[in-house]
Amino acid sequence: MARLAEGQPGREVCGFVVRRGAGAVEVLEVANVAAPDRAAAAFELDPAEELRLLQRLAAEGGEVLAIFHSHLDAPAIPSPSDVAGAFGDGVPLWPGVEHVIVSVRAGRAAEVRRYRAVQGALVPAGAPEPNCA
């Protein structure tokens, strides 16, 4: 992920961390199709490429472990658009799948953080489950 993020310093990169049917874990980049004027601060997975990847994983018995993207000259914390894009009507769009953010500063990966979608927020992956009262 860090190498991919460093390789495109002018735009956010995005993709998936997957477990192949045979058990191998891979990082797979998916094209960021956000408009050029937004691509340095936002990501949008290419839907056709995403669909092909998910179909291939399903056929081989693989699974998505995480969605990743980079932040350029910003910390590896979820932006409001990251949070909004992780949910549909308050429900996680990718239940059980982590969200990974790579912070790229001055062209170098500076930090990587993992999050999970819980109750309308992206919380650090190691954080305890919030109380459900």
Keywords:
Cytidine Deaminase, domain 2, two-stranded antiparallel sheet, single chain, metal-binding, alpha+beta, globular
Question: What about the largest sheet?
Answer: 6 strands, mixed
Q: What percent of residues are in strands? A: 35-45%
- Under the CATH scheme, the architecture is 3-Layer(aba) Sandwich
Which H/E pattern describes the elements? HEEHEHEEEEE
| Strand order within the widest beta sheet | 2-1-3-6-7-8
Poorly predicted regions are none
Number of helices: 3
Head-to-tail CA distance between termini: 37 Å
Number of strands: 8
The count of domains is 1
How would you sum up the global shape? globular
Give me the secondary-structure category: alpha+beta
Within CATH, the superfamily carries the name Cytidine Deaminase, domain 2
The CATH topology annotation reads as Cytidine Deaminase, domain 2
What is the share of helical residues? 10-25%
Rounded mean pLDDT is 93
CATH class, named: Alpha Beta
How would the blueprint of this fold be written?
Layout: H1 2-7, E1 14-19, E2 25-30, H2 47-60, E3 63-72, H3 80-86, E4 87-88, E5 91-92, E6 98-105, E7 108-118, E8 121-124
Parallel strand pairs: 3-6
Antiparallel strand pairs: 1-2, 1-3, 4-5, 6-7, 7-8
